[in-house]
Amino acid sequence: MFERLMGLKAIAPAVLRQRMQHEPVTIIDVNARQSWLAARVPGALHLDPMGYSESDLPPSRDATLVFYCSNFLCRKAPNAARRAKSMGYSNVYIMSAGISGWLGASLPTERGEVAAKRETVFVAGA
Predict the structure, then answer these.
(1) What are the DSSP calls for 15-84, one per residue?
(2) pLDDT digits (tens, 9 = 90+) for 54-106
(3) Pairing between strand 26-29 and 64-68?
(4) Residue 2: which H helix or E strand, with range?
(5) CA-wise closest residue to 27 among 71, 58, 54
(6) Which domains does the chain show, CATH number per domain?
(7) Entry pTM
């Protein structure tokens, strides 16, 4: 709803799921942290819709970005997506159904904290 008024492209949950299986997609959840912890699209980043920076997004301005919030009445995802477009990203979508639509479609989710990546650093001569 709001995405069209803002000149943004919409994507349905089932279509997003298909794309995730065939191409790289950066998915961004702009819900409250508690909501992100409870249920999210697999691999979704959690970002503050108005506080994220370019360094939080992929370096390629052609990367596919999909923003979502709670449901089709939520304005956070469209506002966050519009910010990404103003940063020069050209392939920006809104999953306007939000996490409610994803769950309603019985698609897989993740929950809880994401395990931090461990990096082993080898020091020469150690």
Answers:
(1) HHHHHHHHS--EEEE-S-HHHHHH-B-TT-EE--TTT--GGGS-S-TTSEEEEE-SSTT--HHHHHHHHH
(2) 999 999 999 999 999 998 888 899 999 999 999 999 999 999 899 999 999 99
(3) parallel
(4) helix 2-5
(5) 58
(6) 2-104 (3.40.250.10)
(7) 0.85
Q: Kindly tell me the burial class for residue 78, based on how many C-beta atoms sit within 10 Å of its own C-beta (0-12, 13-18, 19 or more).
A: buried
The structure tokens listed for 15 are 């279509």
Overall size of the chain counted in residues: 126
In whole angstroms, give the CA distance from residue 126 to residue 105. Answer: 53
Residue 91: both structure tokens together: 């392939």
Structure tokens at 104: 């309603």
Phi-psi region of 28 (alpha: psi -120 to 50; beta: other; left: phi over 0): beta
